[in-house]
Every structure is written in structure tokens, then in C-alpha cells.
Design a protein that fits this description.
A 5-stranded parallel sheet has the order 2-3-4-1-5, sandwiched between helices. Helix content is 49%, strand content 10%. Helix 1 crosses helix 8, helix 2 packs parallel to helix 3 and helix 8 packs across helix 9. It is built from 9 helices and 5 strands. The protein is an alpha/beta fold. The chain has 2 domains: 83 residues, Helicase, Ruva Protein, domain 3 (Orthogonal Bundle), CATH 1.10.8; 123 residues, Rossmann fold (3-Layer(aba) Sandwich), CATH 3.40.50.300. Helix 4 links the parallel strand 3 and strand 4. The protein is elongated.
Length: 223
């Protein structure tokens, strides 16, 4: 309930490569940037939920469009793969959830991308070789660059909150960061939404961001 309300109060900013806090995943950001300007034709990202896969795929699509390419993001249930338009960059999320029809469609899309100058970016929870997919599709997904995304640890989450706050011109005292990490949902999406809503609450009430204001804001959000 809290997460849904906060996302309504402070919808997350559109994902970009610039607003992704990389932590230990700088190599993935660099790989996508490089692929978009002539690097690897296939990039596959894998990691546990919350490690940033969806953000990076959506960000890569936005970056591709900014570079003048046609690009498309497709997530589960992957129905769009069966009516796929021609595009320069195809980003497919939740690959472990592909049904047999979508697997066939992605296999065809891969071949079309390779025949042209397209790029295929994929993301799943497991390494490509361990996916329960057609063998020929597993092989193709694993033919390019595969990178594991490491979820942020507590120190990195604290750094990420401070980094996002700095981008908004918001100074956070250390105790506020600790409170956010210990009293809000553990996923960064909710914590960033709390941060954005807190900033708005501070501006509306013309009060500095303090721990008492954060507690007051959280109570207000839950009402």
C-alpha cells in the first residue's frame, strides 16, 4: 500500500543511463553505451530482481532513440514479440518467462537483427546457459557479452540515496539515510519515491528536510 501510494505521489523519473546508480555495475552501463555506438551486437544482463535490469534496458532504448535509432522495449508477457516492427535496437526483459511462441518470435528477431545492423539487449534472472529455453535461442543469447548485475548492498544503497538527493539539490543528513534504509521497503524504487515525496513535502511546507519532517511525511502519506 505504501509503495503504491508513494509511486502515485512521486512517479519515478524516466530511466536513463545517467540516472542509474551503478554501484558495482559500471561495466554493464559501459557495455550498453558501447553497443549503441558500434560495439557488441548482443548484450545479455542477468541478476536477481531489483538489481537494475529493467532500468538499464529501458534506459538503453531511450539512449538509442536519442541517437536516432528506432528502438523497442518488450517485457513479460512478451506479446509484442509476435508483431514486432523493424527496429534497430530490441531490448527484451524477463527472458526466463518467454513462452514457446515468444521464444520462436525472439529467435526470428535475433536472426533479423544479425542480418542487418541491429542490436539485441536481453535480461533475465539466470545466465543464458541456464535458461529453460530452446537450445538454439540460449546459444544465441549467450553469443555476445553476458554480464551479471550485482544488487546494491546497504553501503551502496546509502550512497545511491545521497547521490539521487544531490541531483535534486537536496542535502540529506546521515540519520535520514539510515532511517530510509531501515523503515522503508528495501527496494530502491520505493526509497527513491520516498525521497522525492519528502522533497516535495519539504517545499510545500517550507521546512528543511529533517528526521522529524521525514517521520511526519511518512505518517501523512499513510493517511
Amino acid at each position: 500500500m505504501m509503495q503504491q501510494l508513494l509511486l502515485e505521489l512521486a512517479p519515478p523519473a524516466a530511466p536513463t543511463l545517467e540516472n542509474f546508480f551503478p554501484g558495482r555495475n559500471e561495466a554493464a552501463v559501459s557495455a550498453l553505451r558501447h553497443a549503441l555506438v558500434g560495439g557488441e551486437r548482443v548484450v545479455y544482463l542477468f541478476g536477481e530482481p531489483g538489481s537494475g535490469k529493467t532500468h538499464l534496458l529501458r534506459a538503453a532504448v531511450r539512449e538509442a532513440e536519442a541517437l536516432g535509432h528506432t528502438a523497442l522495449y518488450v517485457g513479460a508477457p512478451h506479446a509484442a514479440l509476435t508483431v514486432l516492427p523493424d527496429c534497430d535496437v530490441l531490448a527484451v526483459d524477463d527472458i526466463e518467462r518467454l513462452d514457446i511462441v515468444s521464444q520462436l518470435a525472439l529467435f526470428d528477431a535475433y536472426n533479423a537483427q544479425r542480418a542487418g545492423r541491429g542490436r539485441l539487449f536481453g535480461a533475465g534472472t539466470q545466465p543464458a546457459a541456464e535458461l529453460s529455453l530452446r537450445e538454439d535461442l540460449r546459444t544465441r543469447l549467450g553469443s555476445g557479452l553476458s554480464l551479471r548485475l550485482a544488487p546494491l548492498n546497504d553501503a551502496e544503497k546509502a550512497a545511491a540515496l545521497t547521490w539521487h538527493a544531490d541531483r535534486r539539490g537536496l542535502r540529506l543528513a546521515p540519520e535520514i539515510v539510515v532511517y530510509l534504509l531501515t523503515h522503508c521497503s528495501r527496494d530502491m524504487g520505493t526509497q527513491i519515491a520516498v525521497l522525492d515525496a519528502l522533497d516535495r513535502h519539504s517545499l510545500e511546507h517550507k521546512r528543511p528536510v529533517t528526521l522529524p519532517l521525514l517521520r511526519e511525511a511518512l505518517r501523512a502519506f499513510e493517511q
